[in-house]
Amino acid sequence: MNNRVRLLTTIILLAASLVVNASATFTELMGSPKYETRAVWLTTFRGLDWPKTRATDVWSCHKQQQELTKILDGLKAVNINTVIFQARSSGYVAYPSKYEKYSEYWAGKEGVGPGYDPLAFVVEECHKRGMECSAWVVSVPPANGYRDPNNPSTADYVASICEEIVRNYDVDGISLDYIRYRDGKAKGVSQWQACENITRIVRAIHDRVKAVKPWVKMSCSPIGKYKETRNLSSKYNAYERGQDVERWTREGLMDQVFPMAYWDGRNFYPWIPQWKQIANGKDMCPGLGTYFLDSREGNRTLKEQIAQHKHVRYDAHMGFAIFRAEHLLSNFKGIYNFMKEFCPYPSLVPPIVGATSKPEKPRDVKVQFGNDKTTIYWTPQSGCYVNVYASREWPVDTKQAKNLVAVRVKGSQIEIPTQYKLHYAITSVDRYGNESDEISTAKEKFRTALSYRPDDSKGNR
């Protein structure tokens, strides 16, 4: 075979290999970030995502809870790390409150609870799976109890609801929705005054929340186009409705922003750099309109949705949020299958900007091997979770997302299914998201699969 034929054959074989492995290797080739917010909105409004069942007796109450755990299991399986749970909709709440009441969708009757505390249940179940849970609060509802942003009492009322949530629940964040004037530009006030009025509400909430638990993240979901400029024109944007997001990030009133960038084409891509520019270092995560894959909502193509995900991660280097849970989990047009490939490994939510103190390492780390599992023990640092890494290479590279085995583990031990022995490293992570240096199990204490015996107690820890 001459060199020319040999070269041609090599090219053909390489091309064939790339075609066969393209979908499976794209994320590997481009990289999967260790730090990336991957959020999903879980709505309770009219039970769109949850609850589907009304809890009117013990059986239906249990079924309602099972619906939630199934949702969270599905999100965990594609490495979602943040659930934005709707704790307040238009004048109704998903927990026992002294300010507002349950909607009829919980127990079939307005004002009646389902026999347990939904918000407490969601927070606990999210934390069991290593996911953060932010309480989604519809701040200035467009209906059913609408409060005027021009009225100074509105700020105190909404801040009181948010403070109630933070005091009573172990939420990781307060996420403000509808923190703006109603659709249509603010009428009766100047643009400057509109921004001042909405910022007054944001500041009141921020100050009340942070005074109780400074590690609780403040976030918001503004309209997906920020501000009209010479190069960008839109009749529907956040700033004209009082959402001065650049000021909120600059002054530290927001730790995360989830702009509702639900459009496509020229209404999507040109606006992403603007959001990046006004982030001021904060965690900017465009919200993607996965619900538009539904033929009843817009019938968009999976190709467009995939392109947006890739653009946000690889071009803009941002996290993302998906609206909403049901459309992702129902695998509309294959979106759930794509997410399995796009997020093959866990990721960590970026730490809160400005909180830079590094926690101490876990103590007394020990590893015990079994036939089908490895158990890791540690003494945790106060107020910290633990991240667990594993690799067949020594030392374990804790900068690589592919080595993450478990994140935000609460407690003092974890069991990991294993078919072969790995090297392990664990770190502490505090409530602000700061991670400690790693502590690794000593290399010489590991035994090969051939030499290991279950009854051999030496070196198992």
Task: Describe this structure as you would to a colleague.
With 461 residues, the chain is α/β, with parallel strands linked by helices. It has helices at residues 3-30, 58-77, 104-107, 118-128, 153-168, 191-212, 245-250, 272-277, 302-315, 325-329, 335-342; strands at residues 38-42, 82-88, 132-138, 173-177, 217-220, 256-257, 283-284, 287-288, 320-322, 363-369, 373-379, 385-391, 404-409, 413-417, 423-429, 439-440. It has a nine-stranded parallel beta sheet. A four-stranded antiparallel beta sheet has the order 13-12-15-16, with no helix packed on it. It has a three-stranded antiparallel beta sheet with strand order 10-11-14, with no helix packed on it. The chain is globular. The relative contact order is 0.10.
Give the structure's gist in a few sentences:
The chain is of the alpha/beta class and 461 residues long.
Shape: globular
Pick out the low-confidence regions.
9-23, 446-461
Distance from N terminus to C terminus (CA atoms, Å) equals 57 Å
* Mean model confidence by pLDDT: 90
Structural class computed from helices and strand pairing: alpha/beta
Largest sheet: 9 strands, parallel
Q: Write the H/E string, N to C.
A: HEHEHHEHEHEHEHEEHEHHEEEEEEE
What is the strand tally? 16
Count, helices? 11
With strands numbered from the N-terminus, the spatial order across the biggest sheet is 7-6-5-4-3-2-1-9-8
The percentage of residues in β strands lies in 15-25%
What percent of the residues sit in helical stretches (DSSP H or I)?
Answer: 25-40%
Radius of gyration: 24 Å
